[in-house]
Design brief:
The chain is an alpha/beta fold and 378 residues long. 42% of the residues lie in helices and 22% in strands. The strands form three sheets. The chain has a seven-stranded mixed beta sheet, covered by helices on one side. The protein has a six-stranded mixed beta sheet with strand order 2-3-1-4-5-6, with helices on both faces. α4 links the parallel β4 and β5. α2 runs parallel beside α11 and α3 runs parallel beside α4. This is Branched-chain amino acid transport system substrate-binding protein.
Length: 378
């Protein structure tokens, strides 16, 4: 081949002329990968990344063209201001969709930024009802909300745990306040008596004053609206004060890490918590297989939300494939009409608000430092 022809051919190849360049579909993920609940944020991100890797290995074709999926991870540290900054960074990077955020307190303010940009946001873990009730067409979640989770736990505390005097503590975050308010409603509707409601923060470590106040009211159940990083030390201090009440919490408490954070200061069966999702029967094998793959791939145990992040990626990509486009304006209407997507967390269908239809809950307790399922409720 003459040198001139070689040079022209090489130049055209470098420019991509005559070549079939692979399109890149960028999916953002935001969660607290630093700070006291970094173990939960990393759990979420690992779940999303595992979905990306598996889909790329299988091959994804959108609009007749094979694409490559890429995950862009951002850290919001569980802080609303950092969360909106992370959201704007993803919008500026022109990602095609977002999985996140983890906390309701970061998910809700970030949702306006994604809505203004017209980018789909699927949260794997934000449960505050407000998130999907703002009228945005871009907000979705793959878990049950606090109305279902908190209300169910409230009724369970009265009807099953036989709680007669119930105390409530919340951490004043969007998540903690929301789930505590719904718990109270559920407990009262079942005939339970709320004997006290105390407040803390998501960064507190000393609960002696509020626990001493509650101890005088002799509660047999204490509900905590907040995360495991606070619940662990709270359980230790309950033991120090000789409070033997059952400790009930939502999905923020319901993690594999809780026994370590409590330094073992929790009696078998003392803690009852709920995860905003649940599979049973034939579907349970899919979840068990996911947990095994997750551990083999990441060398980590699933904390709580990794399977939901995994499914959030899956449901987004399925909508893109069905729409024949990864442009948000084209696949968003298809995503909104999702019905019966079979994920590892169960069947996913969205209602008109973007909420999960028919969301299940899994109730757990802890024995010998291990989380143990009580059962699935709907």
């Amino acid at each position: 081949m003459p040198y001139s022809q070689y040079w022209i051919g090489a130049t055209l190849a470098l420019l991509g002329v005559g070549a079939s360049a692979q399109d890149v579909v960028r999916i953002g993920h935001v969660g607290p990968t630093s700070g006291p609940i970094a173990h939960l944020g990393k759990d979420n991100e690992l779940g999303a990344r595992m979905a990306i890797d598996e889909l790329n290995a299988k091959g994804v074709v959108i609009g007749g063209k094979k694409v490559k999926l890429e995950l862009q991870g951002e850290d919001d540290a569980g802080d609303p201001r950092q969360g909106t900054a992370a959201a704007q960074k993803l919008v500026d990077a022109k990602v095609h969709a977002v999985v996140g955020h983890l906390n309701s307190g970061t998910t809700i303010p970030a949702s306006k930024i994604y809505s203004d940009a017209g980018i789909a946001q699927v949260s794997p873990s934000a449960t505050n009802p407000k998130y999907t009730r703002q009228g945005y067409k871009t907000t979705f979640r793959v878990v049950a909300d606090d109305v279902h989770l908190g209300g169910t736990l409230g009724k369970y505390a009265v009807n099953v745990l036989k709680g007669k005097s119930i105390a409530v503590i919340d951490d004043r975050t969007a998540y903690g306040q929301g789930v505590a308010a719904e718990f109270e409603k559920g407990a009262k509707s079942a005939g339970g008596a709320i004997v006290g409601h105390e407040f803390t923060t998501d960064k507190a470590a000393d609960f002696m004053a509020i626990l001493t106040s509650l101890k005088a009211k002799k509660p047999d159940v204490i509900f905590f609206g907040g995360m495991d990083s606070v619940a662990g030390p709270m359980l230790r201090q309950m033991k120090q004060l000789g409070i033997q009440a059952r400790f009930v919490g939502g999905d923020g408490v319901c993690t594999a890490e809780l026994p370590k954070l409590a330094a073992g200061d929790m009696a078998d069966g003392q803690v009852v918590c709920a995860e905003a999702g649940g599979v049973e029967g034939a579907q349970k094998k899919g979840m068990d297989d996911f947990r095994a793959r997750f551990k083999a791939t990441t060398r980590n145990e699933v904390q709580v939300y990794a399977p939901y992040s995994y499914d959030a990626v899956g449901v987004i990509v399925a909508a893109m494939v069905k729409a024949g486009s990864y442009e948000p304006a084209k696949y968003l209407p298809v995503l909104a009409q999702t019905k019966g997507y079979q994920g590892v967390t169960g069947s996913i269908s969205f209602d008109a608000k973007g909420d999960l239809q028919g969301g299940a809950l899994t109730l757990y307790t802890y024995k010998a430092g291990q989380r143990e399922a009580i059962g699935v409720v709907r």
